[in-house]
Specification:
Elements (H helix, E strand, L loop, with lengths): L7 E6 L5 H23 L3 H17 L7 E2 L2 E2 L4 H13 L4 H18 L1 H6 L10 E6 L5 E6 L6 H8 L2 H19 L12 E6 L9 H17 L4 E7 L5 H8 L5 H4 L2 E3 L5 H8 L30 E5 L3 E9 L3 E9 L4 E9 L7 E9 L7 E7 L3 E9 L5 E10 L4
Parallel strand pairs: 5-6, 6-7, 7-8
Antiparallel strand pairs: 1-10, 2-3, 4-5, 9-16, 10-15, 11-14, 11-16, 12-13, 12-15
Length: 410
């Protein structure tokens, strides 16, 4: 049998990797990861006191109500309830009476909105590509994608927003997805109880669409009022020039704590921004990663198969060397976001005087080519697999790859 993890050597031909840049990026990522951990689990002494005070007030208020549930958790029954109360307190800057009023309003809204019935309601699958859950962030947060460009489809847009009834149905559908997602979170004190929101603004209809603007404002208000502190980060990608004007419209309706979680990235920076919070194997192909959504195009790899990231400086060549110790079949995936590079693959046997085998001759890859290359090669002798990417541009690139060893068969 071949070893599961052949040794890898990454060699760069040309200038050395800018170590300072990479260390700075690592420091920024570590800082963001610490922030996410603190948002999920860090509880100060002041917060603990506020939770105890809120519990006393809430216990007196709910005494005649019997058992009250929220997000699948019975209030005041165990420490999961403490996590929920802390969300309301943080949303109201630890003002206990304000948090109590917020809980009261949320419980009233959930009853009026008939949340329990909504969970079982069939609202169709027309909007499944508009908002969907996919994968997890680097710290384990579930990731929710909001794809506004889907509303360029006029029929879909009309069905979602053309009338007040349609907008109400859209809001119920969005709430249903949110509620189902929230119920899958771990409300234990050490658990993950927030999600990452990724908002893709590519080809978004824009602020001129009044119906979409109204629905977005309603959804944001509903989220803030009734689902406090459920978003670890709001990541906006493919942000166009007009978004700042739109953001200025909704900005007054957001709390300072909510606004502090917003991150914006233009088209060129979107993949790298996502990779700070989500590892590439968890990011869908359409956003720069290697995860294929909605199909099983490459059954050799799953979300659990890690991806290696390598920076490639401008006008340099990068070679990944994978040592093969026994007969096997090696399969791999590789991509450079945006391409504009040349790629070749070859196998170099260890035996003296053996010829190098060209698997993929040097090929110029353009932005219109397939985003991910997949290969398989049957190895009949010891040697090295060499994957080379030549970046002739003046832009820094990022190579993503992963491989897997399968048994050799004649």
């Amino acid at each position: 049998m071949a070893e599961n993890h052949p040794s890898e050597v990454v060699e760069e031909k040309g200038e050395d990797v800018t170590v300072v840049e990479e260390r700075e990026r690592e420091r920024e990522t570590e800082k963001e990861e610490r922030t996410l951990k603190e948002e999920s689990n860090g509880v100060s002494e002041a917060e603990r006191k506020s939770v105890e005070e809120l519990k006393q007030l809430l216990r007196a208020e709910l005494e005649s109500e019997g058992e009250v549930w929220i997000w699948g958790v019975p209030l005041l029954k165990d420490d999961r309830s403490d996590v929920i109360l802390l969300k309301f307190l943080r949303a109201r800057e630890l003002k206990v009476k304000d948090a109590l009023a917020m809980i009261r309003n949320t419980l009233k809204w959930r009853k009026e909105f008939n949340i329990d019935a909504l969970l079982e309601e069939d609202l169709g699958d027309d909007l499944d590509k508009v908002v969907f859950m996919h994968g997890h962030g680097r710290e384990g947060h579930p990731v929710c994608y909001n794809v506004y460009g889907e509303f360029q489809n006029k029929e879909l847009y009309q069905k979602a927003f053309s009338t007040e009834d349609n907008r109400t149905k859209f809001l119920r559908w969005r709430t249903q997805l949110l509620e189902r997602s929230v119920r899958n979170l771990d409300f234990s004190p050490s658990g993950i109880n927030t999600v990452l929101q990724v908002n893709d603004l590519k080809n978004s209809p824009g602020p001129a669409k009044r119906d979409l603007r109204i629905a977005t404002k309603q959804a944001l208000q509903l989220l803030q009022d009734n689902y406090p502190e459920f978003v670890a980060k709001q990541i906006f990608i493919n942000v166009p020039w007009w978004y700042l004007a739109f953001y200025s419209i909704i900005n007054p309706f957001l709390t300072q704590r909510t606004k502090s979680k917003f991150i914006f990235a233009g088209p060129a920076k979107s993949p790298d921004t996502l990779f700070k919070y989500i590892s590439p194997e968890q990011v869908p192909v359409q956003y720069g990663g290697l995860s294929v959504d909605f199909c099983d195009c490459n059954p050799d790899f799953t979300l659990s198969d890690p991806v290696t990231e390598i920076p490639i400086k401008p006008t340099t060549k990068q070679t990944v060397e994978i040592a093969i110790y026994e007969k096997c079949i090696i399969v791999w995936e590789l991509r450079v976001v945006g391409w504009e590079v040349s790629y070749n693959a070859e196998f170099k046997p260890d035996a003296k005087d053996a010829y190098t085998i060209i698997i993929q001759k040097a090929t110029k890859m353009s932005p219109t080519d397939e985003p991910v290359l997949s290969h398989a090669f049957k190895v009949g002798e010891l040697g090295k697999l060499l994957l080379t990417v030549d970046n002739p541009t003046l832009k820094k690139k990022r190579l993503l790859y992963r491989f897997k060893i399968k048994p050799y068969c004649d």
